[in-house]
Design a protein that fits this description.
Chains A, B: Keywords: DNA-binding, Transcription, Transcription regulation. Two copies of one chain form a homodimer. In chain A, 40% of the residues lie in helices and 16% in strands. Chain A is of the alpha/beta class. Chain A binds a DNA duplex (30 and 30 nucleotides) through residues 14, 16-18, 26-30, 32-33, 36, 40-42, 45, 60-70.
Chain lengths: 352, 352
DNA sequence: TCTCAGCGTTGGATCGTTCAAAAGACATTA
DNA sequence: TAATGTCTTTTGAACGATCCAACGCTGAGA
């Protein structure tokens, strides 16, 4: 089957609908139908048209489709400045892209200025009809995007719960509380009782609060005290992170559950500085399962997010919203999974 | 100045060229000229049209522009499967996006299947006129993309030298050799003589070979032997990485320069396993300056790539290629910078 | 016999923009 | 006055697809 490409570099320019139509001896509308509503055609016509499409290597022009249908089949994603580094962004983007492509969509990147996303970028993309919807991430309290997009009737989905006052919009999130809960369970089973939590400042990050919550409820369930066992670091400051670990260790903690792998690393640092060995003297569990986790010594136990599923669900919810703008919002909470490595396999040194 | 938005959610649909024209009392072509060739208009007409454009919040429809001009103002970037994790991808993508936007372009993501990029994704994007060009990364020997794109006359730029036989195409790369050379210089200044290099298998990665080369030439310049001081790990296997470090340490190396932060971490692991402390017993320098480098204990010295500059140059070269398809190829080699942290500040323990 | 819905297909209008070329305005020159 | 040229604006036709309203024909129901 000689399937030549629709290359515009080949002589004669791109293959158009009309060219296919002429060669197949039908009108261009019929060719269009062959692609978009094959059931309208008589089987033999369909067969013939399809063969010609294949022979000529025809592919519809996205620009023309977009102009006519007013749908670009593009999904916008604002990529934040690297200030707040997200170690698994590459996997997330790959997952979203792949899921989008399976539905005939693609991801359009645009740069969000440092210091939090503004609405300008979103407005420009919309006004120019460049995108059909958005995937948001890093949605925090006070983020104006959700309300603004909702008001304008723009489809969007958030990766991360959106808790600006009353909940609005669709989102997909990971049940962080469930993850830290499982981490505590694992540590308790090993015999740990003094389990600390190292997170961010209360209220500064909703995901952080969520993860703290899981730790707290698991501790309570086992009748273990949490008082004085919660350390608060500021976001993105490794010095503060290290300082925040100290009172926890001074309090005799034999295990630390951290709200991110970065914080877990701060914990490693402080332990090393004191001449202690992470994993042996104090068990550590991180969050995110970033690529470096398994390369550390000892290998860092961490709570892995199901990124492929997240990407899939984001796209699914977004397409559903486009199809039914007035349907009730849908929220998906996915389970993370605890990846146990050497940093959390030992029982407490002093017996708990 | 009441600048209302071009929202399609507002009643009446989007603002078009014709609507602006009617309101300004000119033809739509004149409005188009006001935007694309302002010098054709009489100053007072230009002023009036511009005011109306601003009042109505008009923004040209990208789809219509694309259809007419045959240029989508989009740049394709194939994001590889997460198998080969690249820790600074987020910073690279942000940099490229930002640079692209300053030139009126945006980045279109598409998922490359695991196991190396295929041409299908590129062909589809081209045939549908979705992109004007590509940014490639992870270009290795035997990569068919460069030759294929060149043959079809598609503009592209590589991040990473493209060494498939004779060089083709434009690229931007980091002078890895210069980076490892500087690392050796730094270590020599500290008094180290037995400086090992931990890289990947010879020939498996061109960037890896390049980085090895810099180490070798610096060693030779100082009259230091390199024999038996080069360790070879396979890509992406931390066990092999750890094993590869051992002979280097057994050989009495007091410092290790690694071809990536991942490999440097393997080095940390092996040292810890032997009860040694990285940075104190053996100096370690990584490559990439991934976000975790400064969070390790001791903080990992690393060679940082100028990602913002890389993004800017990629876009610049790509646009130049589009403007002049037959111009001679341009290659940019950027200098990385050594970031010294605790892992490489001590003189050799035994005196070198 | 007449109407009418359904069949697979078609022609024409349309989406919003830019290109090419014609047309108008105005001053200059013969 | 008419011809010439320059500067500014308009007209008409694409770009390549989809939407809509019909086409002529058949068979079923009234």
């Amino acid at each position: 089957m000689p399937r030549s490409s629709n290359s515009s570099s080949a002589k004669g320019g791109p293959v158009t609908l009309a060219m296919v139509a002429r060669r197949a001896g039908v009108s261009s509308q019929t060719v269009s139908n062959a692609i978009n509503s094959p059931d309208l055609l008589r089987p033999e016509t369909l067969e013939r048209v399809r063969r010609v499409i294949d022979e000529m290597g025809y592919r519809p022009s996205r620009a023309a489709q977009t102009l006519r249908t007013r749908s670009s089949k593009l999904i916008g994603y604002g990529i934040q400045s690297a200030a707040f580094s997200y170690p698994v962004l590459d996997r997330f983007l790959h997952a979203v892209s792949q899921a989008a492509e399976e539905a005939g969509y693609r991801i359009l990147l645009f740069a969000c200025p440092p210091g939090g996303p503004t609405l300008d970028g979103y407005e420009e993309l919309l006004d120019q009809h460049e995108v059909d919807g958005f995937v948001l991430s890093g949605t925090e309290r006070g983020d104006p995007r959700q309300a603004w997009l909702t008001k304008r009737g723009v489809p969007f989905v958030g990766f991360g719960r959106m808790w600006s006052g009353r909940p609005i919009g669709d989102w997909v999130d990971v049940d962080g509380a469930s993850g830290t809960d499982a981490a505590v369970e694992h540590l308790v089973a090993l015999g740990h009782r003094k389990i600390a939590f190292l997170g961010w400042e209360r209220g500064s990050s909703s995901a952080g609060d969520d993860r703290a919550e899981g730790w707290q409820r698991a501790m309570r369930r086992h009748g273990l005290p949490t008082r004085g066992r919660r350390g608060q670091s500021s976001v993105n400051d490794s010095d503060v992170a290290r300082a925040a670990v100290k009172p926890l260790l001074d309090g005799g903690a034999t295990a630390v559950v951290a709200a991110s792998d970065m914080l877990a690393l701060g914990c490693y640092q402080t332990l090393r500085e004191r001449g202690q060995t992470p994993g042996r003297d104090v068990a550590v569990i991180g969050f995110d399962d970033s690529p470096t986790a398994e390369l550390l010594f000892p290998a860092l136990s961490s709570i892995a997010q199901p990124l492929e599923a997240i990407g899939r669900e984001c796209v699914r919810l977004l397409l559903a919203r486009m199809a039914a703008p007035d349907a009730p919002p849908e929220r998906i909470l996915l389970e993370p999974s605890l990846v146990v490595r050497d940093s959390a396999t030992a029982s407490p040194a002093g017996g708990g």
